[in-house]
Amino acid sequence: MDGAKAVEILKMQQKFLGNILKGFTPEHGDFVPVEGMMTVAQQVRHIADTFTWFRAGAFEGQFDMDFEKLEAENRKPVTWEEATATLDAALAGFIALLAPMSEADLSAPMVDNPIFGMAPKETVIGAAADHVAHHRGALSVYQRLLGITPAMIYEMA
């Protein structure tokens, strides 16, 4: 996989996630099905933060393993506008980093870490896609609880 292919995968995930997010309005940002769960906006920010986490871990050798701190960040209040802006910025930054990379760059091993060991750096692209899929599903459930019929995720138009 080279940078162009990695970018293609991330842009496809961005599109699929956008298909779900377009069903929400800013007023839905604070919706939470059950106390203790993340709000809609917190989930969106969490997706963004996880893109940044994968990027830092694979390409900067810095997987932050302080999950208590990360969870505290997840729980901080955030507006819909802030969350979607954070998502857009995280994806744009990750895409800009990946775009010029060669197959050799992406197949190079990560710094040894407790998440992926020394797997090829490109491993985080699939992991990020899996993570987005998990939250797309959760956000689809949130929509159903709000009386919204989720969009077909895989529409490319």
Summary of the model, kept short:
The chain contains 6 helices and no strands.
Strand percentage lies at: under 5%
Number of domains: 1
Overall morphology: globular
Indicate the percent of residues in helices.
55-70%
CATH names the topology as Four Helix Bundle (Hemerythrin (Met), subunit A)
Cα distance spanning the termini: 25 Å
CATH class: Mainly Alpha
Low-confidence stretches: none
Summarize model confidence as the mean pLDDT. Answer: 96
Q: Secondary-structure element sequence?
A: HHHHHH
CATH architecture: Up-down Bundle
Annotated CATH homologous superfamily: dinb family like domain
Give the strand tally.
0
Subunit organisation of the chains: single chain
The count of helical stretches stands at: 6
Q: Tell me about the largest β-sheet.
A: none
| Structural class category | mainly alpha
Using only C-alpha atoms, the radius of gyration works out to 16 Å
Care to describe what's here?
- This protein has 157 residues and is mainly alpha-helical.
- It has one domain (3-145): dinb family like domain (Four Helix Bundle (Hemerythrin (Met), subunit A), Up-down Bundle).
- Helices cover 61% and strands 0% of the residues.
- It has six helices and no strands.
- It has helices spanning 3-21, 40-59, 67-75, 80-98, 103-107, 123-145.
- The longest helix is centred in the last third of the chain and has 23 residues, at 123-145.
- The chain is globular and about 45 Å long.
